[in-house]
Structures are given as C-alpha cells and as structure tokens.
Amino acid sequence: MEIREVTEQPTLMVRLVTPVAKISDIMGEVYGEIGTYVAQKGIALAGAPYAMYYNMDMEALDLEMGFPVTEVLMGSGRITAGKIPGGKIATTIHTGPYDTLEKSYIELMGFVKEKGLAVHEQWMYEYYLNSPMEVAPQELQTQICYIIK
Fold first, then answer.
1. Taking a C-beta distance cutoff of 8 angstroms, is the pair 52, 11 a contact?
2. Which residues lie below 8 Å from residue 109, measured CB to CB, with a gap of 6+?
C-alpha cells in the first residue's frame, strides 16, 4: 500500500449504469468494443484496462470502463474520450478473485485513515493487470486506486 502522485491520463471509455450482477458480461463487451475500435484506428494503448466507479449502488452502478491511451482522442458512438485524474492517490494491488476485492478495499481505507488522509469515496478506480481468460482466479491482479482529497 502506498500514497503516490500520478499524472492525468487520457482514456477511451464507455460510461454507463448497470446492476452489479451484470458487470462481468458488460465489461467483456465494452473492453472488446474498445479493443476493436483502437485496433481499427491504430491507436496505441498506454496501460491496462480500468473501471472507475462513481457510486456503490449495486442495482444502478454508475461506472466507466476503458483503456488509457497515449494521447487525447475522439471516440465513436458510445466510446468517448475521458481521463483518469491526476493527483495524489492511495493504491494497492489485490491478488485473488474479484469477489474477494472487498478485503483489500477495507485494508486500503484503513491505511488512508492511518495516514490522516481523506478520499473521494465515490470516485475510485481499478486497473485489471491480467485477465480471467488467461489466469486462474487466485492469480488475478487488480490495482485499486482511491483519489485523495
């Protein structure tokens, strides 16, 4: 766990509202759609896929999903330009199945409070450092990031 400074990162993303029960299907669809778009346009990706969460409503989860890119770009259709904000973040790497992420979130929030800091609690994001299509669930790695106020 650490506190670090990050620079603003341009992205191509899709923002939508969905029940959390449908999130894995929707993520696969969105990442595939963006992957096809960047391949057709010859766009360079600048990092792992991410999801940014704007609320924790399990019936109407407001989130964006996308990829960091090397430059600010226009999208097409529901794919739009976005950005991961720059500034100070609290971050940790969770290793294991997605359904065990809560433990790492709780530990990271404890770390933030121990440091006497506060976060934008409805603004957190995750990078998916590997894929459930390629590794076993216990080997999945997710970088959790909270933006510090």
1. no
2. 119, 146
Angle at 5 between CA 84 and CA 114, to 5 degrees: 110
Please provide the DSSP assignment of 7-37 as one string. Answer: --EEEEEEEEEE-GGGHHHHHHHHHHHHHHH
Structural domains in the chain, CATH included, are: 2-148 (3.20.80.10)
Q: What is the pLDDT of residue 121?
A: 66
Average pLDDT over residues 32-36: 95
Give just the sign of the alpha carbon dihedral 91, 61, 95, 109. positive
Three-class SS state of 118: coil
Cβ contacts of residue 63 below 8 Å, gap of 6+?
15, 16, 17, 18, 23, 51, 52, 53, 54
Q: What is the pLDDT of residues 44-94, one digit of tens each?
A: 999 999 999 998 888 999 999 999 999 888 889 999 999 999 999 999 999
